[in-house]
Amino acid sequence: MNLKGVRIIYNDDTGAPDAHNPVDAKLYPDLEEVAATAAEVDAALRAEGFRTVATPLRASGKGALTEFVREISAGTEDMIFNICEGAFGRSSLEMNVAALLELHGLKFTGSPSLTLGLSLDKGLSKDILSSRGIMTPDHCVLNDVPSRLKGHLDFPLIVKPLREDASIGIDSGAVVSTMKELKARVELVLTKYKQPAIVEEYIEGREFNAAVIGNGKEMKALPLAELTFVDFPAGVPRICSYEAKWLPASVLYKKTVPQCPADVNEELRGEMTVIAERAYE
What we know:
Structural class: alpha+beta
Helix content: 25-40%
Order of helices and strands: EHEHEHHHEEEHEEEEEHHEH
Shape: globular
Mean pLDDT: 90
Radius of gyration: 20 Å
């Protein structure tokens, strides 16, 4: 592909009212990391001979969105490299950025707006996967604190906010083993995160990431990655919590170690790759 140029867009949420609010922010312990990532993408593309320009979607100041739209719509670049994982300090607006690009008829990397919106809702995602014969843990979505356990579920369970990502709202207390713990955790999600709770069967096991790229016949699964839980403290569930993902100074972050490619036999690798491709489709 002979591209004239690539425009890199990223969210600069410095000054956003919610930028440091973990309830509706994806990852803002260090806002400079977003700009640093954009700079790394820029350098990598330039090293391959592409002409690049970087455009931040700023959160502060009147007219920031208008200026952003003006720049991306007036540019002559052939492709948008989209690394906006939200807007105005809110990760829930990630899909809106993609929709904006679609409205302007711009080609861009990453998922379309509908995919991003569906992915943010864990219940909808599970319903779609299940309808296509792709197994997911049994679950229910709760809008109120339950008086009893749903008949098809049994402890232990894991409780999460329905519409968050990046493990927001997930810590060691998210895994519950009694009705008392379940009620307390659902109430916490409803009151703190202002959204329903999704309650899932908790499955002890290994944690893999399976990335897929491309479309149609060009679709390709990338090498599997595994998050290994190394010497986790006794009694702490082996889950990828917010702390384990994003807080480098924490014990759980240091004991959650990524490994790529994952150490799996060919049979398991093939099975997971097929599942990933079916989920992607």
